[in-house]
Design goal:
single chain, 109 residues, mainly alpha
Length: 109
């Protein structure tokens, strides 16, 4: 069994993988942001947290998905996709597919 590097080299994808690895390793800076937020609410990974710190963590876990979903909803509302636009996109994709668009026809309705 080959290594990931040899597989990447064989597929010619090494340059893309390095970029993805760098983004994952850095976490887009979210690790530092998360640490600062946890510090701000008084949470310690070492343990011995107060009830206020644990409650802050609960709120953080509950509020983050809500905020992210609200952002997604705002983006989706600002990008309306009508049925006719969808059908045009599907038709364009059918032309580009090497199998003649068999899969796309299934979704086109």
């Amino acid at each position: 069994m080959g290594t990931a590097a040899s597989l990447d080299g064989a597929l010619g994808t090494r340059h893309r993988r390095v970029g993805v690895d760098a983004v994952c390793a850095n976490g887009l800076g979210l690790g530092r942001l998360s640490a600062r937020i946890l510090d701000a609410i008084g949470f310690s990974a070492q343990g011995g947290n107060t009830e206020a710190a644990r409650q802050g963590l609960r709120w953080l876990y509950a509020a983050t998905p809500v905020v992210v979903n609200l952002i997604v909803i705002a983006v989706m509302i600002r990008y309306p996709l009508r049925r006719t636009q969808h059908q045009e996109i599907v038709a364009q994709l059918e032309v580009q597919r090497p199998d003649g668009g068999i899969a796309a026809k299934t979704y086109a309705g």
